[in-house]
Sequence to fold (329 residues):
Amino acid sequence: MLTHRFSVAPMMDWTDRHCRVFHRLMTRRARLYTEMLTTGAIIHGDRQRLLGFDPSEHPVALQLGGSDPGDLAIAARIGEDFGYDEINLNVGCPSDRVKDGRFGACLMAEPGLVARGVDAMKRAVRIPVTVKCRIGIDDQDPEVALDVLARDVVAAGCDALIVHARKAWLNGLSPKENRDIPPLDYDRVYRLKAAMPDVPVIINGGIASLDEAKQHLGHVDGVMLGRAAYHDPWRLLAVDSELFGESAPHTAMKHVFEAMAPYIERQLAQGVRLHSITRHFVGAFHGVPGARAFRRHLAENGVKPGAGVNVLRDAVALVEDRVAASIAA
Ligand SMILES: Cc1cc2nc3c(=O)[nH]c(=O)nc-3n(C[C@H](O)[C@H](O)[C@H](O)COP(=O)(O)O)c2cc1C
Fold:
């Protein structure tokens, strides 16, 4: 059963495999997404490096960037063979590089092409195929553009829609600005859900806490958190209990790091630098005595050549136990 009640957004350079293993230790139920990978990279690149992931990451979705239906089908099939649980198509990323390659948010203007891509992927794989989009781009009317895209991709077999609840303005704004400046319109996403009661609709954009997430769940099937999950990963410790009524795999960040140590050791043994894993831990401790010392210790020592897992252990030891042991909601 496809459950999208809570997921962590695909974020380039952020939600790499190390980050996903870290997040998974805090929540069994969150659906995790890879960074976007282009079909070209998957078809022609070093697949093991690009697509390899740890078995603990399930359920994990592979996000694709591309628009050629044939290439999407091949890349989706490769993803399925690697063991991914879902293929997600990026129809929301506004960067120039992406626009030139005719994929990402500019595809909001080509619903027919997106639908052909979804159809091709559905024929190629048995796992769910989903689409992540915006409510519109540039001067599109979101009332029309989102409905047309949704209708076309659902007709092609799309299993769920993830909607970043703002437009992308493709001319003039940087990708970063495009995540903040076009106004959020959650009601537009709620109306999509009302119009398509049988299709899972997941809302994304600006959701800052689990309390806010719960409010959205009164209107849609799922919530996707991006920056709030990455910058404040401690929020994930409460996901399983607050949103699923289940106990969390670990109740304290210190336990998460103990559980992560064997993974880190395996990665170091394969030549991965400590910093490329610990860089995701910057926001791990929040409002806890020692949080700053933890960050400083990692920043100063994690980058040294040959840095081992003890650097992390020493950093964690700087955080006060009493407070660190409680779950921050
Ligand atoms: C650093 C960064 C990289 C991102 N990379 C992707 C990406 O590869 N694919 C994608 O669909 N969205 C990407 N996004 C957008 C997020 O998935 C999400 O839609 C957006 O940040 C809004 O959600 P939030 O307000 O909860 O962060 C990225 C966002 C950030 C901050």
